[in-house]
Specification:
By secondary structure, the protein is an alpha+beta fold. It folds into 2 domains: 35-111; 116-361, Deoxyribonuclease I, Chain A, CATH 3.60.10.10. Helices cover 35% and strands 24% of the residues. The chain has 10 helices and 12 strands. It is globular and about 70 Å long.
Amino acid sequence: MQDPAADGRPTPVANQPDADPSDTASVTRKPLPKPRHRLGRSTIALLAVPVVAATFVGFFGDLWWVIDLASHFRVQYAMLLGLVVVLSLLLRWPFMLIVSGAALATNLALIVPFYTGDTGEHDPQARPLKVMAFNVLRTNDDHDAVILHLLDQQPDLALMQEVNFQWIGAFQNKAVGYDRVVARGRSDNWGMLLLMREASADRLRIITARTFETLETEEGKPAIEATLEWDGRALTLLGMHALPPVSAAAADRRDRQLAMAADWVGRQPGPVIVCGDLNATPWSAPMRDLLDRGELVNSMCGFGIQKTWPRGAGLARIPIDHVLHSESIVTLERHVGDVPGSDHHPVTVTLGWSNEVTSSAE
């Protein structure tokens, strides 16, 4: 019999059943991630999901005090999300790269302006004003370290918080060259003291100074108000210590104190400075309200995020000690110190009058 293939005809093939669509050999599928990639993605998700959630939830702090706590850690979120973005690239995980990248960009949008912000032009003829705000910690026995830092920095005005009667006595006896403007010593954490450098009397004059209660329904949470004449121009200072938001009740009182500060700014006829331990970061809802309603400038703008609490916590620290001022004032210098004994870093700011103030006055 002649072979069919010999004359070029195709060889008959026995009947075969159609391919089963469920047969993995007949369907092209995307390969599953390798086991180590699956483990890596799970680890990244455990890190990224809560950070991404906190990034966006933190914008709604006015709804609930616990949510507002999420607003304080923008720098930490950015660092963690930067790590997630890198790992997502290495593991070729587009979904997580997009999600974490969007959250990273959101946090950076809130952080970068503090590094790139324009502080404005100041009047070079006006003499500067140096202000220090320091929560010394009531239980801190190292009075000498604090006073040494004060004498080293030589601020024109120094607002000290959490001062008890022992602290007031130490400043009076050892802070050579400084006069007490006004004080409210207390045995709890709410004592306040304002000092003025004697050598600054040629450009700084105290018109009036007093303490008053920041909460209408509660005594013992004082603030300091001082009306000043700085280089021949009127200025009013508010120094305060807000409550820490450790509970719903404490957060509500803190929020009312900051709202009081915004109302206070609105009643002043001229430029103001608001300083102290406000127990809120710039991204917190009540702080945003204070800055917006008071039309205030955060002195950190142009100088970067300068974290002040808790001292010794490294990357976990957050900026809750502030010097805020009117737009007619310009921040010339700003830095935080490191003083043993307190759980806060002191903030020292050098201020100048804006050129716009000088131009309008002329």
